[in-house]
Write a sequence for this structure.
């Protein structure tokens, strides 16, 4: 069985390496389309291996599978009730479910503990590589939104979401072990967002900090605990220093528009509000340039088209970009929804409707609840507590990204695969999938 574990370990490792190196490979002439195809083919190989193990083992583990069956049903109903073609639906299912195949493969293949640990270490190395790549980018081309570590040369949103993965892990470590080195490491990952001119990262860190503090303090918010209050004070000082550095060093976040500018909260609030509610192209029929406005514009487009489109969307694959589809930018060209419409909530809702969003979120809520149940049992050591807190934090990142930022947690393999592996890794400490 060791041989089978080694093969599965190699396949998973290559999948993760390709996912984290898509941008770097694109720079040397290997398109992201080819890299993505390689990732998907390897996931299918992994799935086949898992099927052989299921046959020999006589047991299937499929957490949350019933929810995803309902999601498939909703997608099929949406397809039959709308005018998208078969190619569009196939492209949607490919984009949407390939990582779920990876998820269920993990639970049903043979992987020894030593290989699980090596994959965890590989993920840590791949995230660390992003810090190095971002600083190289700073010295070679300066601050820019593209070239996000080694992951992508175009998906700027990853510069916000990817560092949050590492920051959740580092914050969890800091809360459990109280070592200052985790704060220093966190600053390095904040630098990725800073180098890419991303302001959202500091806001999300604040929310994650509050959430993890709440999770860590199991006795609740209102228990008088001097030791805990001291920890809150110290952590808050660190966060204020980090926040001030970020605002001062990010030209977009200070009124002077320079590196080393002043910290002006009033300016920052006004800028953030304007950025989230951009509406500069309404005169030419385009709305939803701001992320705050876009969901309401999208919902208006759906309700204006009737009950069926509201409930089941405009069809699976309607917003998938491909040479096989009519529009190069369907959200903008067909529905006149601007930049803000790229958030995951809009991407899912407009294609498979309100019912699709509800079912889709139910699966991720299911994962969160199961891990929270393990956490609440208090049957773990410090190391396991870090992993449990990390996954709960990653779930919050997932929901924040889905509702307010981008489709990265749905479509980007580096992020989705790590998120799913984290859940699988936690379950490797239990006798069965939860």
């Amino acid at each position: 069985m060791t041989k089978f574990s080694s093969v599965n370990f190699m396949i998973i490792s290559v999948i993760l390496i390709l996912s984290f190196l898509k941008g770097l490979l694109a720079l040397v002439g290997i398109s992201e389309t080819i890299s993505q195809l390689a990732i998907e083919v390897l996931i299918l190989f992994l799935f086949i291996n898992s099927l052989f193990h299921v046959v020999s083992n006589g047991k299937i583990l499929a957490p949350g599978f019933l929810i995803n069956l309902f999601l498939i049903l909703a997608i099929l109903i949406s397809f039959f009730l709308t005018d998208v073609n078969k190619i569009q639906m196939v492209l949607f299912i490919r984009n949407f479910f390939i990582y779920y195949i990876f998820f269920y493969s993990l639970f049903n293949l043979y992987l020894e503990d030593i290989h699980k640990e090596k994959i965890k270490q590989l993920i840590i190395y791949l995230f660390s590589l992003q810090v190095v790549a971002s600083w190289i980018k700073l010295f070679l081309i300066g601050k820019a939104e593209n070239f996000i570590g080694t992951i992508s040369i175009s998906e700027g949103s990853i510069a916000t979401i990817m560092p949050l993965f590492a920051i959740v892990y580092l914050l969890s470590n800091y809360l459990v072990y109280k070592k200052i080195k985790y704060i220093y490491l966190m600053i390095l990952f904040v630098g990725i967002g800073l180098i890419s001119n991303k302001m959202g990262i500091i806001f999300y860190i604040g929310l994650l900090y509050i959430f993890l503090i709440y999770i860590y303090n199991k006795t609740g918010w209102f228990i008088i605990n001097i030791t805990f209050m001291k920890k809150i004070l110290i952590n808050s000082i660190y966060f204020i220093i980090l926040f001030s550095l970020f605002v001062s060093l990010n030209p977009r976040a200070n009124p002077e528009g320079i590196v080393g500018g002043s910290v002006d909260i009033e300016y920052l609030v006004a800028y953030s509000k304007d950025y989230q509610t951009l509406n500069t192209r309404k005169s030419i029929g385009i709305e939803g340039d701001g992320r705050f406005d876009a969901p309401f514009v999208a919902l208006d487009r759906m309700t204006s088209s009737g009950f069926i489109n509201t409930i089941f969307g405009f069809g699976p694959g309607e917003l998938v970009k491909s040479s096989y589809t009519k529009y190069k930018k369907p959200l903008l060209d067909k529905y006149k929804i601007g930049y803000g419409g790229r958030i995951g909530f809009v991407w899912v809702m407009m294609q498979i409707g309100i019912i699709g969003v509800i079912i889709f979120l139910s699966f991720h809520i299911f994962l969160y609840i199961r891990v929270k149940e393990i956490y609440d049992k208090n049957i773990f050591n410090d190391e396991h507590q870090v992993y449990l807190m990390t996954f709960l934090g990653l779930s919050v990142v997932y929901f924040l990204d889905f509702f307010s930022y981008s489709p990265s947690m749905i479509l980007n393999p580096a992020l989705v695969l790590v998120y799913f592996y984290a859940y699988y890794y936690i379950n490797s400490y239990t006798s069965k999938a939860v």
Remarks:
- Residues 2-276+341-427 form one domain.
- The radius of gyration is 22 Å.
